[in-house]
Amino acid sequence: MPITYLLIGFTCLISFMAFQNREIMVKMQHWPYYEQRDGEYYRWLTSGFLHGDPMHLIFNMLALYFFGIGLEEWFLDTFPAMGKTLFVGFYMLSIVAASSATYFKYRNVSSFASIGASGAVAAVIFAAILINPLMTMGFMFFPIPIKGFIFGALYLWFSSYAAKQSRDNIDHSAHFYGAVFGFFFPLIIKPGLIVEFISQITGWVQSI
Fold first, then answer.
1. Is residue 129 within 8 Å of 186, Cβ to Cβ?
2. Calculated CA dihedral for residues 91, 97, 99, 103, nearest 10 degrees
3. Which end of the chain is more exposed for a tag (fewer CB within 10 A), N or C?
4. 198 lies in which domain range?
């Protein structure tokens, strides 16, 4: 069974438990102020298994399903002896990386708290883009298909812009840094990917 299925199942289980028990939500959510004050840094990880409502959960888990399966297969093909372990480690570290980024931004703001797997899912998507930058993608409300690397650039621009505006309750900083982590993690374990990434994009540009 793919590890991706287990991650989805575990996330759904914890999220539904938190829907029914507010205490779980409060105890596990990413809350930088209390993490700094009380040393509750476990929240950097646990918050990635919580969601605000069923639609939030469904959206993230669908994205994890569509991109996670392929990425997990890449890890297995590239590192047969430890592919599953690397994939799980990558996903967990993605949650922590996204949370730690917002920790330094909001650690003195007692009112800020966030939940969700969005940062880790962004990491999975950007790792997939690194491996296959020419995949066809599109925004939910933008039906025109575009290449993965173009989608990635637009996603990073929007996440950075929205994080600076801070006009909603979405942790755009976590999305941005999760995506950046997801792009660079595979490069750490297989640096040659950057050459393949550039080569694919260059070939596509030349073919236009």
1. no
2. 170
3. C
4. 3-207
- pLDDT at residue 141, rounded to an integer: 53
Nearest-angstrom CA–CA distance, 204 and 65: 27
| Locus of tokens 């962004």 | 122
Q: Which amino acid is at 170?
A: I
- The CATH number for 186's domain is 1.20.1540.10
115: left (phi over 0), alpha (psi -120 to 50) or beta: beta
CB 208 within 8 A of CB 134: no
Residues 63-104: pLDDT tens digits?
999 999 999 999 999 999 999 999 999 999 999 999 998 999
- If DSSP codes are grouped into helix, strand and coil, which group holds residue 114? strand
Give every residue of the chain whose pLDDT is below 50, as ranges: none
What total of structural domains would you count in the chain? 1
Cβ atoms of residues 115 and 29 within 8 Å = yes
Q: Where are the beta strands (DSSP E) in 120-170?
A: 136-139, 142-147
